[in-house]
Here is the input.
Amino acid sequence: MWYNNILETIGNTPLVKLNKIAKDIPATVLAKIETTNPGNSIKDRMALKMIEDAEKSGKLKPGGTIIEGTSGNTGMGLAIAAVIKGYKCIFTSTDKQSKEKFDALRAFGAEVIVCPTNVDPEDPRSYYSVSSRLEREVPNSWKPNQYDNLSNSQAHYETTGPEIWEQTEGKITHLIAGVGTGGTISGIAKYLKEKNPALQILGIDTYGSVFKKYKETGEFDKNEIYPYITEGIGEDFLPANVNFDLIDHFEKVTDKDAALMTREIARKEGIFAGNSTGSAIAGLLQMKDRFKEGDVVVIIFPDHGTRYLGKMYNDDWLRDRGFLKDEKLTARDIIRKKESPEIITIDVDKTVLEAINTIKSLNISQIPVTQQGMVIGKITESDILDALLENPSLKSQPVKNITTAPFPFVDLNASIDKISGMINKENIAVLVEDEQGKIEIITQYDIINAISG
Here is the structure.
């Protein structure tokens, strides 16, 4: 058997039992692995449905341009369908999304416009506003508007919901899913509650989003809104696809818990999933008292870990945000262990001869070059040697004539792995600013000294 095109492979994703990560949950916990869709996410389902419905209604015409505000996964689904069906794509997104997501969209020929995150949806710079403006300006274009287009939730009512019901033989008692556009959770919930009205639908929200408070109080509280790191869930407005009547409870999960749990899933279950999956599992563990023996809990795993390699799966990214503290040495530790923490610099107007004398007398191999106290470059033994071999009279000239690009700066929390990876033949040291604002230098010798000390 074969498929006529890649779109026919969307759906019928596996349901996999979670073991180690859910060991403290008395219920059976099953993951709906949506990464097996061709675009590696659940959004393929609704992207295709929105396009097909728009074709039927005449909103999307042959050779048209699809314009959408998307964090990446919906864009991927739309882009794949557009390749098969002959449409162009322009996507707007926010600067908090991972670079990998944008690169993946561009791989399918889509144009991606990156907009600022920290602006209101009504702001003309927001990714919602920019996509709406482009729809008005680009001829023969169509904006799916995944947030308010009810084909989104309908796709899950028609496919994901029935699959889960059949795969669990109707035994599912709880569904856990992140809530962003609301299409996934609302569409599945509608189908499952028609089958069993007692079934519990548990939505995962994030701090900085309005959903949980709105569900519990009916109040849209703008004070709840602030920037957050978690991708794919939460919102600062109420999409039409979020059916609050079908969602029994919202559980909020912090950025830190979501990020760290994302990694745990790979390490404990061998499933390479994205950031919102980390939120869902963290939420599951926070809600463990809701489940009892005999319950069957299904959790949606919406997308793949490859889109988060530069973020949740990157130790330095986590460390920079204070999410990860491990035993590895950092720049701070290396400075603390330095035998001579005082940095030696030379002013840009000093002569090359003075630089040579400084290097000789202090037995060092490189000096940062300063101008009015600011580091603007460096000179090394090899820089001086190369210059003098070419022109011996350079001795009396200012060091600015042979100054090269400065050593790179690293954060105090930068790991020893990151620092040692930056030090090589071309770049023999890094600089770091301590808590008092003083510049320190770290060389290969300092790293060796810190490890052996």
Observations:
- The longest helix spans residues 151-167.
- The domain at 331-452 is CATH 3.10.580.10 (CBS-domain).
- The chain has 15 helices and 16 strands.
- The two ends are 64 Å apart (CA to CA).
